[in-house]
Amino acid sequence: MAKSKKTTDIPTLTETWSLPAPATFGSLVRAKGILLEIRARLPMAVRKSLEYTVATLTLSMPEDAETEFRHTAASVSRALESIEDLPVIPREIQDILSISTTERHRWLEDGRLKSAGTRTVKLRGRARQITFHVFDPKLVKDLLDNGTVDEWREHDKAAAAENRRRAASKAKLARSLKKNKSSPKTAGSASSESPPLAGWDDFDLDGLLR
């Protein structure tokens, strides 16, 4: 006789929130960053109860945890009220703008990419802390809407081409100077001493130098 199938389903309380597009910029990395940010504001015991699926946050808890569920749901709702103002961290801005780590560092150093400050976090399970720049989401939106990144890349290409041209000219000049310096003087070449002036001896004999 076949054994009856044992059910493992546990009745749960659930609530969902849609993440607004202006908050995520259509980026999965940004959406998961928002999830981690909101989880960090919740008690450790309930953080894993909040999950992300397809632009939606879902809170699921057992039915016997109704009070805790209501408190947690209220905390998530409060956090989402200002979620569009949440600073954008490095890995998020790279995904949103489709830029590389090298480009982010370069544009930060030359002032084109404006930092909104820094943030320091402790790595999980480690004593070491890391500090990184964060960015204003309004700035990120402007860069995305105006195609500014493409303009910066064109500028960088032109600057790189000019630097290569200057480096080639400098190297060519250096080789030319080195070649001239090492070449032996040919016969009949001008002496380093000035040639005698014609008629000088006659001029001296007339006593005009005395």
TrEMBL record:
Polar residues biased stretches: 184-194
Domain of life: Bacteria
Region (Disordered): 158-210
Acidic residues bias: start-end ranges: 201-210
Biased composition (Basic residues): 166-182
Protein name from the UniProt record: Uncharacterized protein
